[in-house]
Each structure stands twice: as C-alpha cells, then as structure tokens.
Amino acid sequence: MSDNSLRVVWVYPDLLSTYGDQGNVLLVERRAQQRGLGVQRVDVRSDQPIPTSGDIYLIGGGEDRPQRLAAERLIRDGGLNRAVDNGAIVFSVCAGYQIIGKEFVNDLGERQEGLGLLDVVSTRGEAERCVGDVLADIDSSLGLPQLTGFENHQGVTHLGPEARPFARVHFGQGNGTGDGTEGAWHDTVFGTYMHGPVLARNPLIADHLIKLALDVNALPPTNDRWYEALRQERIAAATAPA
Ligand code: GLN
Fold first, then answer.
1. Which residue, among 96, 100, 108, has the nearest Cα to 153 in the 3D structure?
2. DSSP designation for 242
3. What percent of the chain is predicted at pLDDT more than 70?
C-alpha cells in the first residue's frame, strides 16, 4: 500500500480474461472503495513491463494460444515473480492458474514452463472438457463461505506438496484429477478454475485478498447484499438435477 491506496494490477487483458474475468478486477476495486480505500488500477498489456509494486495481481483465463504467449512473456519479464517475492497477492483463474504453476501442456501439445508461483503441474485431460457450474467448500482455514463458479477447461491440475487445495467440490470437476480438489493456494498466491466472474459470485474472496494486502483480520462491514441473490441462483443451478 502506498498513499493509502490499493494498487490493483490486471495482468495482460489483451491475452487473458475470458468469460468475464475482468469482473474480478471490478469487484476488488469496488469492495476496496466501499471501505474508503483509494484504488490505483493498472492494466498491463502483454507488451508492457509488469510493475513490481502492486498489491494485488489478477490474472484471467484464456484460450490455449494466448495462454502460451502470456506464459512466455511473463517469464521473460520476471516482474510478477519479483512482486510475489516482495509479498504481493496473486489471484489467477483457469489459464492464469495453469500459467502460475510449474508447468502446463500448451496448444502445441508441448510441456511448457510456468512461473512456479504455485506447486502445481497441469496436463491436458483425456476425458471430456470440464464445463458447468461448480459448488465447493473452500479450505476451512480461509474462513470463507461456499465457492460458486463456472468452469470450462480441458486442463487437469495436479497439486504438489507445497500447494493446498483451494476448495473441495460437491458439484463439478475443479482440478479434474478425480480427487475432488478445486484450485490451489500457498501463502498469498491463489489459483482457481472458477469463472463467473468468480469474485462477483464470491465477493468475500475479494475481501480476503484486500485483507491480505492491508495485513488486517477484518474489514468494515458493507451493507451490500446484491450478490446473495446471484449466489443463491447459481448454487441452485449447480445442484439442480440435470
Ligand atoms: N486453455 C486452458 C484449458 O482448456 C484454459 C481454459 C480457460 O482459461 N478457460 O485448460
């Protein structure tokens, strides 16, 4: 934090952010502003350097080819890894989640190096693409309510010992390994397969990211309840018989 404002960095909007993942940026901005915080939002295109002074970095999902290009450029740039070394927070979705892991299989069918910010490795699933609404329980140590989201991915993500599952699914596939895990996290770095946009469906996750950035245990309450109706509707959709 500098000058009492939260620096929110949206990584490579020109390559990544499918299925409305831009909404995650808007949610973090809004939830911070509702607490009287100033927000400096920085949108970093893939031909620009990643600033290392951000508080929260948001990375969206993407198609397979832009995913390959984004990973190459982020590794060449090095700024995101330096920011995390300085304590920055990363919240990444789908292709973004795969990119911040150690390795993923790219559009050419090759194993490609990721940023290594999470101890996960992604492969291409042999089974059908994972598509649909998801309902999951978030790691209880994070103190967050049920996770609702929408998944659409071919990738399957395996967690290593340094990564904790972000959630356990009731409905849907999540990491796609068949072990019921969804997403991964370690310290200030989070990855999930959930679109939705996921922070619109789960604004308390955005609050969690802001709390981490401010290094506080609680934020002033908001009387904003619009999202409860959205949550109930999507949870009902996930649990409805096919
Ligand atoms: N291309 C990746 C996959 O299919 C990610 C897709 C996405 O971000 N929606 O696994």
1. 96
2. -
3. 98
Decide: helix, strand or coil at residue 140.
Answer: helix
List of residues 6+ apart from 103 with CB closer than 8 A? 111, 112, 113, 114, 121, 122
- Long-range Cβ contacts of 226-232 (<8 Å, 24+ apart): 227/200, 227/201, 227/203, 230/200, 230/201, 231/148, 231/201, 231/202
Whose Cα sits closest to atom 10 in ligand 1? Answer: 155
Instruction: Indicate the length of the chain as a whole number.
Output: 242
Q: How far is CA 16 from the centre of its chain?
A: 12
**Best residue for ligand 1 mutational test, from 12, 15, 17, 64 (most atoms within 8 Å of Cβ):** 64
Domains detected in the chain: 5-239 (3.40.50.880)
Digit-coded pLDDT (tens) for 144-190: 999 999 999 999 999 999 999 999 999 999 999 999 999 999 999 99
Distances 169 to 81, 141, 180, 199 between C-alpha atoms, Å:
29, 16, 5, 17
| pTM for the model | 0.97
Number of neighbouring beta carbons within 10 Å of residue 201: 23
Helix 203-214 vs helix 22-33: crossing angle, to nearest 10: 60
Specify the amino acid at residue 89: I
